[in-house]
């Protein structure tokens, strides 16, 4: 796959995973290769900084992004350690279903 196809697939999967918990209708992934910056956001802009997210929300967003990246690369296996440490029971269960 080329970079554009990978990016589109990553975006679609990230959006699907984020919809599962937060019921977001549209998300955006912006990669600035020159500045080496990655921005993940809801298009409507409800959250302007990850600093305003709870620990559980940050964990969920990180897991959602990792899952979307893993779908673009073939792995014999993958694992996450303590990805749910800041999550409540509902988010922990939802993240575990995706992993």
From TrEMBL:
InterPro entries: P-loop_NTPase. GO terms for molecular function: ATP binding; damaged DNA binding; single-stranded DNA binding. One of its GO terms (biological process) is double-strand break repair via homologous recombination. Transmembrane segments: none annotated. It is found in: Chromosome; Nucleus. Its main location: nucleus. One of its GO terms (cellular component) is site of double-strand break. Keywords: ATP-binding, Chromosome, Coiled coil, DNA damage, DNA recombination, DNA repair, Nucleotide-binding, Nucleus. Belongs to the SMC family. SMC6 subfamily. This is Structural maintenance of chromosomes protein. It comes from Polypedilum vanderplanki (Sleeping chironomid midge). The lineage of its organism: Eukaryota, Metazoa, Ecdysozoa, Arthropoda, Hexapoda.
């Amino acid at each position: 796959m080329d970079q554009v196809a990978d990016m589109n697939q990553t975006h679609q999967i990230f959006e699907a995973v984020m919809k599962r918990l937060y019921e977001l209708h549209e998300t955006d992934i912006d990669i600035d290769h020159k500045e080496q910056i990655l921005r993940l956001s809801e298009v409507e802009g409800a959250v302007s900084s990850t600093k305003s997210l709870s620990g559980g929300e940050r964990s969920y967003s990180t897991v959602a992004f990792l899952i979307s990246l893993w779908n673009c690369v073939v792995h014999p296996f993958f694992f996450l350690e303590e990805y749910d440490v800041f999550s409540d029971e509902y988010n922990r269960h939802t993240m575990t279903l995706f992993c």
